[in-house]
Each structure stands twice: as C-alpha cells, then as structure tokens.
Amino acid sequence: MKKVSVLLAEGFEEIEAITPIDMLRRAEIDVTVTGVSGRQVTGAHGVSIETDAEIENINFSDFDCVVLPGGMPGAKNLANSEMTVDFFSKMFADGKLIAAICAAPAVVLGPNGILRDKKAVCYPGAESFSPDIEFSDERCVRDGNLITAQGPGTAAEFSYAVIEVLKGEKTAYEVKKHALFLF
C-alpha cells in the first residue's frame, strides 16, 4: 500500500490539508497526518487537527510521498523546521513524490533548491519568496516527482494528481466520480 505523510505546521491552510487527506484515503492510500509543531495543530482559520504522529517520530523512508499544504504562517513554519526540510529533501533526492500547494512551493521548496529546473506553480503573489524561480500560471502542474498547485480552489485537482501518480489514472477517475468532481 502506498504511504503519504501530510505535514501540518501551525497556520496551515485547512482546505489544502483536509482535501488531500480525505481524497487520498478514499483512494485507499495510507495517509499519516504528521505534526511539525506537536500533535495538536491549528490552521490559519482556527480549525484544529490532532495529528497521527509528530515529525520526529516518523522515518521518511517509510513514505512514497509527502504533501506540504500552504497557508500563512503555515508555509513559513514548514520552511523554518529543519526536520521538515530534511524530510522532503531526502525524499526528493530518492525520487519520491513531493506535492506542495499554495505558498508552500515558493516559501518551502524554492529556497531549498527543489524547484530548480522544474516547472511549478504557487499562490499568486508568493513568487516573491523564490525570485529566481519562474512560476507557471497553471492551476496544477506535475514535473517528474514534483506536483504543485495554486491554492485552496485547486486542492481537489492537486489531490487527484497525487492519486494518479501513486495509484493510477483509473483510481483517480473513480475517486473523482464518487466525489462528483469530474472536470
């Protein structure tokens, strides 16, 4: 079974975290909601989530993918966590899937070299955090083992892109169909 860690730091964007957690689980992907700042993490709009594990208690090699939600100050808190940077950097180096949405591509991945020579998108305006990266204006983009998306309104497309890579087009289509999200 494919395994994904969704990393949550204080101030995460709720839609960008909860949508992938829900959709990936519907696709029968093993999702571990991982707290970067403890077991109880509160989003940018006051929604608190009790995580399955804390980042210091997981092993990156157990996972096929890491999901980095955006939101502010969530993305900054992810970027400021050495364990988070170590986690996704090792996974990326091993060719595993990195999926980041909203501010996370520009705030977290760009400054850490993950977007170098990659096509990526981010929340409009967040480009200033990675001035050396040329971002696309598409809603959701896949480039090799990297998936990026613009923000809350693209959370479902983002989730389906991750499902497609991990479980195939047929599974992604079935999850879309059952969620009444055919685009």
Give a quick precis of the structure.
By secondary structure, the chain is of the alpha/beta class. Helix content is 33%, strand content 20%.
Can you offer a commentary on this structure?
The chain is α/β, with parallel strands linked by helices. Helices cover 33% and strands 20% of the residues. It has 6 helices and 9 strands; from the N terminus they run E-H-E-E-E-E-E-H-H-E-H-E-E-H-H. It has helices at 14-26, 74-79, 82-93, 104-109, 155-167, 169-178; strands spanning 3-8, 30-35, 40-42, 48-50, 53-54, 65-68, 97-101, 140-143, 146-149. It has a 7-stranded mixed beta sheet with strand order 5-2-1-6-7-9-8, with helices on both faces. A two-stranded antiparallel sheet has the order 3-4. Strand 8 and strand 9 form a beta hairpin. The radius of gyration is 15 Å and the shape is globular. The model has no long low-confidence stretch (mean pLDDT 96).
